Amino acid sequence: MRLLDIALLPLITALWATCSVAGQQCTRETANVRKEWATLTPTERLDYIDALHCLADTPPTYDQATYPGVRTRWDDFVATHINYTLNIHFNGLLLPWHRNFIRIWETALREECGYKGYQPYWDWPSNSLDLAGSPHFDGSETSLSGDGEYDESAERDLSLPKGTGGGCVISGPFQNHTVNMGPFYDAPGNKFPDDAFAYNPHCLRRDLNTRVSSYCNSPDVTAALLAAPNITTFQTIIDKGLLGVHLNGPHGCAHASVGSVMGDLWAAVADPAFFLHHTNLDRMWALWQEMDEGTRRVALNGSSGIYNSPDWPEVTLDTPMVFGELDEVRYIRDMMDPMDGVLCYRYE
């Protein structure tokens, strides 16, 4: 970013914070409305699916010499997530960083691919007992595709029970979807992979796992999340759930319940389910914030390093967040209220 851009950033941010699209103040009537996938009409689902295919067919903006695995506009988002993985997970940046990441994705779908709707979400408890039978993953033409072909030897987290797939997705609109980077299943959780952006085309793999979703994405877990008395407890439940064990929270478990590509901490963005999952995580945060706006719109906890590493500074409202070439620098304070500034959306 040029120095001139940085100098102008406070002015730009201040101007954007006073208005939404077309210069209107953000209100319940003017806000974008995000809906659960199952409540969308078949036509609305197909429109979203078409927009995803559009991003997968559009050339990237990232330089291929620097990012050899980036071959599509969708890959721009995968590479960005890989690049910042060590700063945006299991810490104080998880929620605000992904809130803006979703906004950038939603904007790309609408402005670059003609999508007329808004980013849908996946309400985890709605299908936690039957992933493969749900409109999200039933493999129909209006789903996000179904399970992968059964593969006993597929790479997975051995601390979790085996799912029902593991191989290439064999049904639905993304059965021919190509993942161009990763996988990073064996990459250490605190070290950047040497081949992070290498070109490695492979199929979209899934390993649907109801045994995982049934105990950590249940109604009891989401109820406990919304009942959290403070942001520290809220984040602990996100990461550790009701059992208090790492990765048993609804965030990690939703990734693991879809499995394979979605279970890849670094490259999960390549699975079409990623943004629906993170949009629901954002929805949970938004609902929790609404219960005590005076306190929770400024409530933060944790550092800006993975696992709240003490080597990184504690987050504050003035902590900057970077998104590579996808967006300008944003500050946490700009992401604390979905009905303010550049955001202007609500959940239905």
UniProtKB/TrEMBL annotation:
Keyword match Signal: yes
InterPro entries, per the entry: Di-copper_centre_dom_sf (IPR008922), Tyrosinase/Hemocyanin (IPR050316), Tyrosinase_Cu-bd (IPR002227)
Residues covered by the Tyrosinase copper-binding domain: 271-282
Domain of life: Eukaryota
Gene3D superfamilies according to UniProt: Di-copper center containing domain from catechol oxidase (1.10.1280.10)
Record field: transmembrane: none
SUPFAM superfamilies: Di-copper centre-containing domain
Signal sequence extent: 1-23
Keyword vocabulary terms for this entry: Copper, Metal-binding, Oxidoreductase, Signal
Keyword Signal on entry: yes
Name of this protein: Tyrosinase copper-binding domain-containing protein
Organism expressing this protein natively: Aspergillus keveii
Lineage of producing organism: Eukaryota, Fungi, Dikarya, Ascomycota, Pezizomycotina
